Prior knowledge:
The chain is α/β, with parallel strands linked by helices. Helix content is about 30%, strand content about 25%.
Amino acid sequence: MPKKTLLASLTLLPFLLGPLALGIPHSISAASGTSAPAPRTADPVVARILELGEQDNRVQEHLHTLCKTIGPRLTGTAGYDRAARWAMEEFQSFGLQARLETWGEFPMRFERGYSTGGMVEPAEVDYTFTTSAWTNGTGGPRRGPALLEPTTQEGLEAMKPRLAGAWIVNAEPAPSAELRRDLREACVVAKAHGYIRPGGRSERLLMSGNHKVEAGKIPEQVQIQLLRSQYDGLRARLEKGDAVALEFDVRNVLTDGPVPCTNVVADLVGSERPDEFVIVGGHLDSWDAAEGAQDNGTGCATAIEAARLITAAGGRPRRTIRFVLFGGEEQGLFGSRGYVEAHKAELDKTSIALIHDGGGSVLSGLDTSYAMLEDFRQVFAPLVPDERFPFKIGESDGLLNSGDSDHAPFLRAGVPGFFWNQSGQGYDRVHHTHFDVFETVDPAQQQRSAIVVAVGAYGFAQLDHLLDRTDAAVVEPRRMGVSLEGTRITRVSGRGKAKDAGWQDGDVILSIDGTEPKDRDAVTEMVRHGAGKKVFRLKRGEEIVESTIDWGDEDSEKQRGERALRREAWMRDHPAAASR
Ligand SMILES: [Zn+2]
């Protein structure tokens, strides 16, 4: 899944958690006057979860099994099925009721075997490369000349007699789409071996693939994605006229399906309200050129360890905690969409869905709507944040689909779905690349995250009510209809408030209602808050222009006003929340 998109928490209400400040029953804290660390909860189960989480945390064992014993877990492969069975049995070993639930099928089964390849003439060089999932292999070692992709029609015509059994190396810059298409057609006719294209920046091989394949219609030509530096070296040789031969043995195997696709669903059944649910999870599927460690082994491992910690602590929650490891996330959130569809009847009583899919950096908080604030603070009060492991509950104007992961189908169905806040540090480099391996994950951060998930899951399951969904939906934000670079308008779009107000490309925003915005985010922030009518001072060439934009005629503005009143009333009724 998706990189974590930066999520603007609209009204952040930072605060520090602590038992005293929260008025939590202090039977334990009152008793201790010695050097024992200050207890953070009166609930013995939570206290035990914290203790076990610090002294006997096994989250990295789960991750290690997923990454090293099982390996990549592309949906619809044997690797995925192995992982699903293992995870189900793991949950069962903690006493949970676990099963596999089928959400659909993929047309063909894909298996990626061990592949080798490189330059064989004029020098021998082993290559680091990958191919897209659900594409053909070579069917044995295929050796042939490397030809630099032609950039003109004449070049293509001249090359046609040599295409049979050749490896075509992409030109840079790329030729026209039309010429490339003509080349592809000629390669099919002549039975070229395949194409070589460069990987991403920083020597990253990027993983992807289209699962919608049909037997007999899969291109024979193999698409090799080569490490950027090796591709550059290869292309340089060809450009200076070297005769180069390549050989690849790509062991991709596609077999007829359909392949049933599953989620792992494991219930720690509630003691009082078994038909009410708290959902905790991540996605079990991964791309397959690495180990899917950060995306999303980390999220599965924290869910599994949370289940272990809660049960090992003797937790028998009031409502059911349902651990779900989804499949098909990378192909379009299939597992979570299928879950929401199949469990429609339970969604009213599904209090929350907490999805950990932002990699290995520590879970550092959640942003929620005002009506859930107090509950969130209560649930996470036992966590004591520090510099290393910050944790903050923020207030947002409705639940945003940050990250576009498995919480999104829940949000769309009206269930409070959350994507944990994380710094995302180190994630971009590995995300969907061949670098996504176990060794990139920091054990300390993962251990803390497992504790956070366990405390959250148990806490929400213990509340005496389901979470309040009032105003959980996002009100359409105010838009200006401009593209910004810093505070400079690079483009005024054809429709929108800015266009109506006569703004021009190149205008620079000097101030909004008298305040100078320092960057693009500040502009967005200032536009979204406060009155729905704002005065802008713009610099246009040598001129200073004053311009008023009024959103007052929009439906969303009315909704925003009504919502602000409801929030105010809620804050009056909840002075403790308001005072933070
Ligand atoms: Zn993911």
